[in-house]
Design a protein that fits this description.
This protein is an all-alpha fold. The protein has helices at 22-39, 46-53, 57-63, 67-79, 90-106, 108-121, 125-153, 162-186, 193-205.
Length: 221
């Protein structure tokens, strides 16, 4: 099975013609995000993207079957830029990646594209599957990396049961990604350092440790 974090699948063996150009792919995906911000999902066409990217429509269709697949890959490329440098502790790692994720969601192309594909996926099961494989499964790499580092530091216990470890990874991802997306895109509230510190403390210590969470700043009189 292909590692979900390894990026797009290579072209099938024996395929003829010139190899795919990474530069052309990047230009197409960037053009897709720009067109989506300007036109919206319903008005966006493969023709719009090909014109903006300066490539023929046949070039697009050799790479993507249609608009759904193209837009999901355009979103996935943005999220693939997220990294998790070692900040020395699990708490610092979580705070770092949550702040970077929130910064990414503030970008118009990320916000518009993500909301568009999620909305469209409510009536398109194939699109939901592609979002899961191209975005969700690939981004779980950050959770896996963070947990491995925390286990190596002795901050988290090792899990011998692979299925249990997988379920834990899924749950951590759902809690972090779901909370940040809701905060930033649904509630439209700031994801600042104070909020991130409070959220991370809650995640680390749970509701029973809520009394030790950082105090919110006093509201101005």
């Amino acid at each position: 099975m292909r590692n979900p974090s390894s990026g797009p699948s290579p072209a099938p063996a024996g395929r003829t013609g010139r190899p795919r150009s990474a530069a052309a792919d990047a230009a197409i995906l960037a053009a897709t995000r720009d067109a989506l911000v300007e036109l919206g999902w319903s008005k966006l066409t493969m023709g719009d993207v090909s014109a903006r990217a300066g490539v023929a429509k046949t070039t697009l269709y050799r790479r993507w079957a249609g608009k759904n697949e193209l837009v999901v890959d355009a979103v996935a490329e943005l999220f693939d830029s997220l990294e998790l440098p070692d900040r020395g502790s699990l708490e610092a790692d979580i705070e770092y990646v949550v702040l970077r994720f929130a910064e990414l969601l503030r970008r118009p192309e990320a916000r518009t594209a993500l909301m568009a594909v999620v909305a469209e996926s409510t009536r398109d099961e194939a699109l939901r599957d592609r979002i899961r494989s191209a975005i969700v499964d690939r981004q779980k790499r950050l959770v896996v990396l963070g947990r491995e580092r925390a286990q190596a530091r002795g901050e988290l216990p090792y899990e011998e049961d692979a299925d249990l470890a997988g379920h834990t990874t899924d749950l951590i991802f759902d809690v972090i990604a779901g909370t940040v997306v809701h905060r930033a895109l649904v509630s439209s509230e700031p994801v600042d350092e104070m909020w991130v510190a409070t959220f991370t403390a809650l995640l680390m210590h749970g509701l029973l440790g809520a009394s030790g969470l950082p105090a919110a700043p006093a509201s101005p009189a």
